[in-house]
Specification:
By secondary structure, the chain is of the alpha/beta class. The protein is built from 9 helices and 12 strands. The protein is elongated, with a radius of gyration of 21 Å. Bound molecules: calcium ion.
């Protein structure tokens, strides 16, 4: 979806907030953008994704808000009235390590380079796809936060779950001692599910952990890969006993 500047009615917004399956502890995002339509679109989108969003329309306000509200991440437009995005970034970098993602206009190559030099962590070029932006924001937040609980324990070299065994280093999986031919993403997905045995994981978390930066995928990709995996590891893929579907949430590896 290329960012269409459609702003849904506030009731819709409310519903989205309520049914959002966003992060359990809400992360705060500061949106700095002088173009009102884009600012409100970003506010809407990230609220719907489960974040708490504050917004500023100029550089001075951005600096003040950033210092007062201590956001977990800042989306920072470069072309701003007053202090521009680069100056804002330079000022904030003096005493804040908050991840900063720059929004640059098409072909502002110089701005991108300078942006990274003044301490921005990443940038997207307008017009950007919301999906790409959300993926980058998630990746930056993940990086800032370090290992997630799901991957907190030391990465084991091999995992055994019942009659399934995976060698993480060699990228091999055996079922009943027989090696399975899995595609790389199937392997990654299986290992992720196995290492979260007994725990329901959302499609969003799977997408973020297994696909990460590859942004041309959505949660249906997860479903498709789960289906493929079931065909490999389930006795009856139509009645799975290893990978359960948890309605409204995602999947759980049993055993
Ligand atoms: Ca602007």
């Amino acid at each position: 979806m290329i960012c269409g500047y459609n702003i849904p009615a506030s009731t819709e917004m409310h519903e989205l907030q309520n049914r959002s399956l966003g992060p359990t502890t809400q992360k705060k995002i500061l949106v700095v953008e002088d173009e009102e339509n884009l600012r409100e679109t970003l506010r809407y989108k990230f609220t719907a994704e489960g974040y708490r969003v504050t917004a500023a329309a100029d550089g001075e306000k951005a600096v003040a808000l950033a210092k007062a509200s201590r956001p977990d991440l800042i989306l920072l437009d470069i072309m701003l009235p007053g202090l521009d995005g680069l100056e804002v970034c330079r000022i904030l970098r003096k005493d804040m390590s908050v991840p900063i993602l720059m929004l640059t206009a098409r072909d502002e190559v110089v701005d991108k380079v300078v942006g990274l030099e003044v301490g921005a962590d990443d940038y997207v070029t307008k017009p950007f796809s919301m999906r790409e932006l959300v993926a980058r924001v998630r990746a930056l937040l993940r990086r800032a936060e370090g290992p997630t609980p799901a991957s907190n324990s030391e990465e084991p070299q091999s995992l055994t779950r019942g009659d399934l065994k995976a060698d993480v280093v060699a990228h091999k999986v055996w079922l009943h001692g027989r090696e399975l031919e899995l595609k790389p993403k199937e392997f990654d997905l299986l290992v992720f599910l196995m290492s979260n045995r007994g725990r329901a994981v959302t499609r969003e978390l799977i997408l973020a952990q297994v696909w990460g930066y590859e942004v041309e995928v959505d949660t249906r990709t997860v479903d498709v890969h789960v289906r493929w995996l079931r065909e490999r590891i389930e006795a009856d893929p139509a009645r799975p006993t290893r990978i359960s579907t948890i309605r409204g949430v995602g999947y759980r590896f049993e055993g």
